[in-house]
């Protein structure tokens, strides 16, 4: 079945003979329901799309010319996506289905799907067929799947007889890059600092560890790397690359320590950074690491107590997205204050009365902490309670 035939009549056609020829031609070329495709496999790319591939059906195996496929993806909430994948070079075979019943069967396959098209690439070849579906790294999206989520794929070949038998496969979507940790803050003393943070709002996978880098701001050298295991630690993949990422990160620091979490709650983390120099400015960078990817980092600066730098205050630092012009205004105000402070400390102006010194700076106190998120969006972060300019952005 499914073969095409051409009938040639070499005699003068009598009245009504055209209808007989048409009916006979349609009967000879009528398709039947196609079998399920074979070799349906799913390739998961960390941080990338889901790639589905399968073997094509020849006209003999497909019981007619298979000119399109119906793809459906089901997630936790039901139908996540549906797409009709058309053959781009099937030409005249892209015809109407043979019957209204065939059309109704095809439409019923995805009647409950309201999601828009998710397939971003489709290759219709002679040796293999494939389709790619995007995976989101920014939460729920109408045009992509959620990361690290169970889905089921259903695929039907379609010929003139309508949809054929279904081929199915289930998979868990790959991890994508985690967002930065939240609530990053530091409480410094003279020789140590308590660093606290919370799990990312969008982990986009199963987090395994958090890498805490400690930098001396003046030398910009990583003095130590502290690694905290996540409360979700435990690889659920055939192979995880967490250890490889941590090994690469450790090569940039003078020492590496694996420490226990001293935070309260399943999503709260705390680590005590020791062996710090008094009156010194440090930078702490926290990077979440999942089974397959390193996420975005959050960073803050603090100054230990003692020495000439003061510092040591327990300050909570909050990162808030604001326009760049606000950041520039804050930096400009800090520069003005620094200049005024230096003038007030100069020997020539030490004897001047307080009324002669410039007023209105609105800033007082010792240097404080600030936080910013790196590796994320192009937005800046608001620096809370900055009385003076720190050495790094």
From TrEMBL:
It comes from the Eukaryota. InterPro entries: FN3_dom, FN3_sf, Ig-like_fold. Residues 347-368 are annotated as: Disordered. Residues 34-164, 178-297 form the Fibronectin type-III domain. The chain crosses the membrane at residues 316-338. SUPFAM superfamilies: Fibronectin type III. Keywords: Membrane, Transmembrane, Transmembrane helix. The keyword Hydrolase does not apply. This is Fibronectin type-III domain-containing protein.
């Amino acid at each position: 079945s499914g073969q095409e035939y051409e009938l040639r009549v070499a005699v003068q056609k009598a009245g009504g003979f055209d209808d007989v020829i048409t009916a006979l031609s349609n009967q000879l070329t009528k398709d039947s329901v196609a079998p399920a495709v074979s070799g349906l496999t799913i390739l998961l790319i960390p941080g990338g799309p889901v790639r589905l591939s399968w073997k094509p059906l020849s006209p003999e195996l497909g019981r007619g010319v298979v000119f399109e496929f119906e793809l459906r993806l089901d997630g936790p909430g039901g139908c996540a996506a549906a797409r009709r994948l058309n053959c781009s070079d099937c030409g005249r075979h892209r015809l109407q289905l043979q019957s209204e019943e065939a059309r109704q069967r095809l439409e019923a396959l995805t009647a409950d799907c309201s999601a828009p098209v998710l397939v971003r690439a489709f290759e219709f070849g002679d040796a293999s067929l494939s389709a790619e579906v995007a995976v989101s790294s920014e939460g729920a999206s109408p045009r992509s799947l959620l990361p690290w989520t169970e889905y089921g794929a259903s695929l039907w070949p379609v010929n003139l007889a309508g949809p054929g038998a279904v081929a199915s496969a289930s998979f868990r979507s790959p991890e994508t890059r985690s967002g930065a940790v939240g609530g990053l803050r530091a409480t410094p003393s003279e020789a140590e600092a308590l660093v606290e943070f919370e799990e990312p709002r969008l982990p986009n996978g199963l987090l395994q560890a958090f890498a805490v880098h400690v930098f001396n701001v003046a030398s910009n050298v990583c003095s130590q790397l502290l690694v905290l295991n996540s409360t979700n630690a435990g690889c659920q993949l055939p192979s995880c690359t967490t250890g490889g990422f941590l090994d690469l990160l450790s090569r940039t620091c003078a020492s590496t320590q694996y420490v226990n979490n001293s935070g309260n709650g399943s999503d709260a983390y705390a680590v005590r950074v020791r062996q710090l120099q008094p009156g010194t400015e440090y930078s702490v960078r926290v990077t979440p690491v999942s089974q397959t990817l390193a996420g975005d980092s959050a960073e803050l600066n603090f100054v230990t107590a003692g020495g000439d730098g003061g510092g040591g205050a327990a300050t909570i630092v909050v990162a808030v997205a604001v326009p760049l012009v606000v950041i520039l205004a804050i930096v400009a105000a800090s520069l003005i204050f620094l200049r005024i402070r230096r003038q007030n400390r100069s020997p020539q102006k030490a004897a001047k009365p307080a009324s002669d010194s410039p007023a209105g700076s609105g800033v007082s106190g010792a240097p404080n902490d600030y936080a910013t998120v790196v590796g994320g969006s192009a937005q800046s972060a608001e620096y809370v309670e900055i009385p003076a300019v720190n050495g790094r952005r």
